[in-house]
Please model this.
Amino acid sequence: SRQKLKELKEKFVREVDPSGANLVVLDGATMKPEDFRNAVSAMSMFVKKRMIVVERLLESGKKPVQEAVAEYVEHKDFPEDHIVVFWEGETKKQETRNKKQTKNKKPVKKPKSSSSTGSETIATSLLDVLKKQKYVQEFVVLTPLEVERWITEEVQRRGGKISSGATRLLVASVGNDLWRMANEIGKLLAGHTAITEDAIRESVIEKTESALFAFTDALGARNRSEAMRLLV
Model:
């Protein structure tokens, strides 16, 4: 998903705004509703389109901010000229309550919140608003077989080669963390045209085991700073 976001940003800069001045990135964990409104409503006399990227609003943002953004996106005056991208690292599935009722219990009414117009309406779910947009893409966790296919394509894209045995060993060593996998592939191909099983054992497995032992030793010695460095 990060790779896809990078491609979208690069395409905007390449085709719309080479200066990159109209590419705005907002941190969903710290942004306020007015930050989003100002970014989307701002106009430029040199570039007709702007690109606004909102990161981790569902994952880390405050609920009132999510509701305000959802209402603004659905508003009839929401500008349609700009490109607005919502990127999430991980969205937790909403918990569903058991709706069965007993004879002695009454159904609980959903709380109401006041909208900007002053009328009482049930708060709009940002996730529901985003899911019904025209362009929605989900990046699910890949299975081991899908990771093997991804590795083969990524190595070929970088102009390298890898055998099926080396591919399976790399999956067994790294798992389905594609962010780390991409970094490991980059290191393995540095100065080489092919990735071998021996290179994976030396560069990935042995270094991982060595770092794990060092991390355990740092914890045992209560060396917090060293443990955190190794963890990162």
Summary: The CA atoms of residues 141 and 177 lie 9 Å apart. Confidence is low (pLDDT under 50) at residues 94-123.
